[in-house]
Write a structure and sequence with these properties.
The complex is a heterodimer of chains A (about 260) and B (about 15).
Chain A (H helix, E strand, L loop, with lengths): L1 E5 L3 H10 L5 E6 L3 E7 L5 E8 L5 E4 L3 E6 H8 L7 E6 L5 E7 L6 E7 L8 E2 L7 E6 H12 L4 E7 L2 E8 L2 E7 L13 E4 L3 E6 H7 L8 E6 L5 E7 L3 E7 L2 E3 L1
Antiparallel strand pairs in A: 1-5, 1-7, 2-3, 2-6, 3-4, 4-19, 7-8, 8-9, 11-15, 11-17, 12-13, 12-16, 13-14, 17-18, 18-19
Helix pairs in contact in A: 1-2, 3-4
Chain B lengths: L1 E3 L7 E2 L1
The chains are: A mainly beta (about 260), B mainly beta (about 15).
Chain lengths: ~260, ~15
């Protein structure tokens, strides 16, 4: 028996909107730790890892570890039917081939339930070690989204370089080239508007903008984004979910063969 | 020529 009650249901709506274009089907894993997911895109160069910790739910009952295969587009369709202020409860019985999403309006005058069929998914789970990164950039998530969108109108790939001077996003295409430099800026009114760069080693990595643009669908989840980079290793783009957990995207760099 | 290797190139499957 599984019953997870999330008062801020809009968080789950935003999570689905942020990952449904990158991944078609995924197993949601439920344990005493929380509600989590790890899934790769179809070409296996990008991965999403989601964690919603059990403490973030108003009510969290998960009698035994459960893995529920869901089509993310179908799940997003159902969650779109929840109001932004609704409380969302996820329910499943042991051995059932369905999951139920219950939506309650804040005043309790409208209660809906949507039952979705589960699916069997053979998923490959990757062991991702906690790593020390050469450079970590924290910046406003809207700024990162704007940069990825702007650069993708010029080129297909972005080179992200971190030096003492700041973080540089560069692209080249048929019509020309573009460079955007963001300097460390901590003298802002609101901490979330700051750009903070922690650098151990200079880093320069190239990525496909098609994927970074998918990642920025998570912008509504957090006002800041953290980009962790090490030379020759996949980048981690993390959006924290207030008090509850995170959505992390991993992307393989384009490297010389 | 630059190439994107799959993530299984970097991380082991569990």
């Amino acid at each position: 028996m599984l019953e997870l009650r999330l008062v801020q249901g809009s968080l789950l709506k935003k999570v689905l909107e942020s990952i449904k274009e990158l991944v078609n089907d995924a197993n949601f894993d439920c344990s005493s730790t929380g509600f989590s997911l790890q899934a790769m895109d179809s070409s296996h160069v990008a991965l999403v890892a989601l964690l919603l910790r059990s403490e973030g739910f108003e009510h969290y009952r998960c009698d035994r570890n459960l893995s529920m295969g869901m089509n993310l587009n179908n799940m997003a369709k159902m969650l779109k039917c929840a109001g932004n202020d609704d409380i969302i409860t996820i329910k499943a019985d042991d051995g059932s081939d369905t999951v139920t999403f219950m939506f309650e309006s804040p005043t309790q005058d409208k209660i809906s339930d949507f039952e979705m069929k589960l699916m069997d998914i053979d998923s490959e789970h990757l062991g991702i070690p906690e790593a020390e990164y050469d450079a970590i950039v924290r910046m406003p998530s809207a700024e990162f989204a704007r940069i990825c969108k702007d650069l993708s109108s010029i080129g297909d790939t972005v080179v992200i370089s971190v030096t003492k001077e700041g973080v540089k996003f560069s692209t080249k295409g048929d019509i020309g080239a573009a460079n955007i430099v963001c300097r460390q800026n901590t003298t802002v009114d609101k901490p979330d508007d700051a750009t903070v760069i922690e650098m151990k080693e200079p880093v320069s990595l190239q990525f496909a903008l098609r994927y970074t643009n998918f990642f920025t669908k998570a912008t509504p989840l957090s006002s800041t984004v953290t980009i962790s980079l090490s030379n020759e290793l996949p980048v981690v783009v993390e959006y924290k979910i207030a008090e509850m957990g995170y959505v992390r995207f991993y992307l393989a760099p384009k490297i010389e063969e | 020529m630059r190439r994107q290797f799959p993530l299984t190139f970097y991380f082991a499957m569990t």
